[in-house]
Amino acid sequence: MSRFKDIKLFAGNATLELAEAISNDLDIPLGKTMIKRFSDGEIWVEINENVRQRDAYVIQSTCYPANENIMEMLVIMDALKRASVDTLTAVIPYYGYARQDRKSQPRVPITAKLVADIITAAGADRVVSVDLHAGQIQGFFNIPFDHLYALPVFLDYLKNFPMDNYVIVSPDMGGAEKARAYAKRFKCGIALIDKRRPKPNVSEIMNVVGDVDGKDCMLVDDIIDTAGTLCSAATALLEVGAKSVFACCTHPVLSGPAIERITASQLDQVVVSDTVPLSEAAKKCSKIKVVSVANILSKGISRIAKGESVSSLFV
Question: Region 157-166: what's the mean pLDDT?
Answer without folding.
Answer: 80
